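Service request form, structural biology core

Requester: graduate student, group of Dr. S.
Request type: structure prediction, single chain
Budget code: on file
Notes: please return the result as structure tokens.

Sequence provided:
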Amino acid sequence: MTIAVILCAARKHNDAGYFRNRNGQPARFVAQPDLAPLSKIYTYARPDDVADVRGTWRELLSDYNKKNRDANQLGLLKAWQLYRHKTYGQLVRQLGEENVYVLSAGWGLLPASYLTPLYDITLSSLAEDYQRRNKGDLYKDLPLVTDHGNEPMVFFGSKFYIPLFCKLTARHCGRRIVFYNSAYEPSAPGCELVKFNTKARTVWYYECAQAFIDGRISL
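Core staff response, request fulfilled:
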């Protein structure tokens, strides 16, 4: 079975749950809290900031997924359900939750079933300053932890995310195939590069993933 990794998306379902601080304010995770718009509703934080409950927010999320996922009192959505685009659900239906991952700029490599809170973090240079993650910022990204043996792994995402994909999937023993749409081949050490031709220039990787789902891409 092929393992699919797909890029996160800016458009998310707003009914996803939140962590809250001691004062009951929902925590909204962004790349640069100091630059975020003023809000009387949210408290802004980075995933690896120290929470005012215990540990960091990332540690709280990890514990929540280990101990509270069945009850899910906070109403967090699974990673594949958090994003609005239909492709996430289509990949899960095609491959199963256990074979799909979301590459998140905020949290790392998330299994499709991983319960995830709302966040506004991206590697894209086109985003607002408060959303944009910079190279030197501290992120203890979640890496690939499941052993999928020699199964091939494909990545659908923009060039900004290829270095993060390569880093977080480095322990995978099988082939890693990176689709790209740029005029020149991106750098992807240890991976195979496959050009996907399309007129789309921004979210072309959804079209690429659909071609994979439909069986129009052969590995």
